[in-house]
């Protein structure tokens, strides 16, 4: 697959346009001094240096956001403990898609590659989940509704897809039988992201089909190539794997 040419001005859109007055004031308090310092320090900055500077600002803001989220998750859990609410509340923290910081020459999200495909999920359920454990099974945000309904003792409607996560949360891994998941990105935002429509199936291998006007495929071994940089789709050694995944992805699309 060809790398995408990202416009240099893609992050120059004014982020303050949708802000309310008090939000704009808080924003200006932080960023006005930064802008003034930049103007004084780099009066004649050239294009490639400007790109480096913007990337550094981008990364610093991103990690600052992550630190703020971590701190506030801790504050919330502390509040529950302090007010004797812990035993009656299941705390779940998750997010939208993951994020690229130049992996695969990408920023933002959208692609099926691992950095964007994987999503954070933290759960605290006192007297049910053992503390400080990590589960590597494939789960999806589509599972959340069934999970919450089961915990609340409510029968999920028959037409709901996916399954409850309670077996994994309670350590009953033998009751969990999902071994693969399906992904489909269908919105081509040509004016902002240049991310072409694509879908894929993920099991031991990640099989990706960039469809519509591209018609290209990629195949990555999830254990042998965790960084997903060696496309094995055209490698004759993987022809059987490709054939199995082509069949599987059609079945996945019908089921979903």
Main attributes of the structure:
single chain; 256 residues; alpha+beta; 4-stranded antiparallel beta sheet; two-stranded antiparallel ribbon; 8 strands; 35% helix; disordered N terminus
Q: Give the overall form.
A: flat
How far the N terminus sits from the C terminus, by CA atoms, comes to 26 Å
Structural category is alpha+beta
The chain-level mean pLDDT equals 87
User: Could you state the order of secondary-structure elements as H and E?
Assistant: HHEEEHEHHEEEEH
Describe, in plain words, how this protein is organized in 3D.
- The chain has 256 residues and is an alpha+beta fold.
- It has a domain at 1-68.
- The chain contains six helices and eight strands, in the order H-H-E-E-E-H-E-H-H-E-E-E-E-H.
- The strands form three sheets. It has a four-stranded antiparallel beta sheet with strand order 5-6-7-8, with helices on one face.
- The model is unreliable at 1-12 (pLDDT under 50).
List the helices and strands and how they pair.
Elements: H1 21-41, H2 47-82, E1 91-94, E2 100-101, E3 107-108, H3 114-117, E4 121-124, H4 144-151, H5 166-169, E5 181-185, E6 198-202, E7 205-210, E8 216-221, H6 239-255
Antiparallel strand pairs: 1-4, 2-3, 5-6, 6-7, 7-8
Brief overview, please?
With 256 residues, the protein is α+β, with helices and mostly antiparallel strands.
């Amino acid at each position: 697959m060809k790398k995408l040419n990202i416009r240099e001005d893609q992050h120059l859109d004014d982020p303050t346009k949708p802000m309310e007055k008090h939000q704009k004031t808080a924003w200006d308090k932080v960023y006005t001094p930064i802008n003034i310092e930049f103007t004084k320090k780099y009066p004649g900055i050239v294009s490639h240096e400007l790109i480096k500077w913007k990337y550094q600002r981008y990364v610093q803001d991103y990690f600052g956001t992550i630190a703020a989220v971590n701190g506030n998750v801790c504050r919330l859990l502390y509040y529950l403990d302090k007010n004797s609410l812990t035993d009656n509340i299941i705390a779940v923290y998750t997010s939208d898609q993951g994020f690229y910081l130049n992996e695969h020459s990408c920023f933002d999200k959208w692609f099926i590659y691992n950095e964007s495909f994987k999503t954070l999920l933290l759960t605290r359920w006192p007297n049910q989940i053992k503390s400080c454990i990590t589960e590597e099974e494939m789960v999806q945000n589509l599972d959340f509704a069934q999970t919450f309904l089961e915990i609340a003792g409510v029968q999920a409607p028959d037409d709901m897809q996916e399954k409850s996560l309670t077996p994994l949360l309670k350590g009953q891994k033998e009751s969990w039988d999902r071994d693969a998941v399906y992904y489909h990105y269908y919105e081509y935002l040509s004016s902002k992201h240049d991310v072409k429509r694509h879908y894929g199936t993920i099991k031991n291998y990640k099989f990706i089909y960039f469809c519509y006007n591209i018609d290209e495929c990629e195949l990555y071994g999830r254990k042998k190539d965790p960084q997903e940089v060696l496309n094995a789709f055209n490698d004759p050694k993987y022809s059987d794997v490709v054939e199995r995944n082509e069949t599987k992805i059609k079945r996945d699309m019908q089921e979903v």
